[in-house]
Amino acid sequence: MATKTDKAWAEHALAALAEAGFKRGGARTAVVEALAGHSCAVTALDLDEELRRRRPAVGRASVYRALEQLEQLGLVQRLEVTRGTAGYERVEPDGEHHHHAICRDCGRMVPFEDSSLERAIAELSAEMSFEVTDHDVVLRGLCERCAN
Amino acid sequence: MATKTDKAWAEHALAALAEAGFKRGGARTAVVEALAGHSCAVTALDLDEELRRRRPAVGRASVYRALEQLEQLGLVQRLEVTRGTAGYERVEPDGEHHHHAICRDCGRMVPFEDSSLERAIAELSAEMSFEVTDHDVVLRGLCERCAN
DNA sequence: CTTCTTTATGAAAATGAGTCTCATTTCTGA
DNA sequence: TCAGAAATGAGACTCATTTTCATAAAGAAG
User: Fold this and answer.
1) Of A41, B26, B41, B85, which cross-links B89 as Cys (Cβ 3.0–4.6 Å)?
2) B92 falls in which pLDDT band (50, 70, 90)?
3) CA of A73 and C1' of D1: distance in angstroms?
């Protein structure tokens, strides 16, 4: 509602999937479109519920499968939203990316980005005997509302 | 085997638990002792298995309870080891703390610490409208062995 | 456009980590 | 020593995620 559908991302994602050799399929396309409509992380079950009522209905397995494929291709980012549940959100093709602060009480997520943080991680990654391809940063605590 | 039991941490933890108003209990003590014997993250179920055979046996619920309490008090750090499973590891009382690089292939964890990363996070936390109490940083990629 | 082969899909069952319940035992302060 | 509070463990339960498997849709070949 606050965010309009990110059509550019959806097209980018569908193109990347085709590029990777996937056949076209209604379920996967539906997942991509649904993700394009969410600006911040959504859980797989939220997507499942959202897509289950479609005609034709999308099955839960397909949702999980699509999310996994999208993640492999670097089109979505997965993060642990609460204990035992993962959230997924679009990764913009231009490489912009953000991290999240998650409220321990209400679960609210506040996205943020910080260049000095990214720089520190990049330098660190370069000097490790480890081929770093991704990173997650999660801040945890209380949001403005729950803190009082 | 590579690491000898961290007795100092165990005493510190037990003292902190007493300080926090917990009564003494065999199960919790057993969990603390078990954690003291692991230098890197262990899953709750690993601990459960390790402690189940003790005399008297420690129940699964007690393991989870103890881990949660220890985490609340900042005595252990929780991190997502693989999809859907959490690992727990000791936090040294001197405030030193480290993060992990996790290999996507073999699951190996390489701990690291970096002061400029910590500094960036501290500064960032200070200027957010969010009361940040904790943070996780996970680097993902391929370890030296799996990269070749 | 029909056939063939492969991939995609969805319903339901299975898995597995983590949580809850509750009867029982253990602590601790009085 | 006693009563009340806290801790414990066995097992049932929840719920996110994965697997299975029979069927449907896609793309290639003819």
Assistant:
1) B41
2) confident
3) 69
Distance CA B121, CA B126 (A): 9
| Mean predicted confidence (pLDDT) in B76-101 | 89
Find the residue closest to C26 using CA and C1' atoms.
Answer: B25
Q: Kindly state the greatest CA–CA separation across chain A.
A: 52
Show the DSSP H helices in chain A as ranges.
7-19, 26-36, 44-52, 60-72, 115-126, 144-147
pLDDT given at position B2: 44
Q: What are phi and psi of A76, to 5 degrees?
A: -135, 160
Q: What is the pLDDT of residues B11-24, one digit of tens each?
A: 999 999 999 999 99
Q: How far apart are CA B5 and CA A16, in angstroms?
A: 50
Q: Which nucleotides of D are covered by protein (CB under 7 A)?
A: 6-12, 15-20, 25-27
Q: Report if CB B24 to strand C is under 7 Å.
A: yes
Is some CB atom of chain B closer than 8 A to the CB atom of A130? Answer: yes
Q: For residues A36-57, b (16+ Cβ closer than 10 Å) or e, as one string?
A: bbbbebbebebbbebbeeeeee
Q: Closest residue by Cα to the C1' atom of nucleotide D26?
A: A23
Does A23 lie at the interface with B, CB-CB under 8 angstroms?
no
Q: What does the angle CA B76 – CA B105 – CA B51 come to, to the nearest 5 degrees?
A: 40
3-state secondary structure of B116: helix
Q: What is the pLDDT of residue A2?
A: 45
| Mean pLDDT, rounded, for A52-61 | 90
CA of A117 vs C1' of D8, distance in Å? Answer: 44
Q: Which two structure tokens, joined as six digits, stand for A119? A: 């720089």
Q: Is the CB of B140 less than 8 angstroms away from the CB of A132?
A: yes
Question: Could you tell me the pLDDT band of residue B107, with boundaries at 50, 70 and 90?
Answer: confident
pLDDT above 60 for B3: no
Better-scored residue on pLDDT, A109 or B55: A109
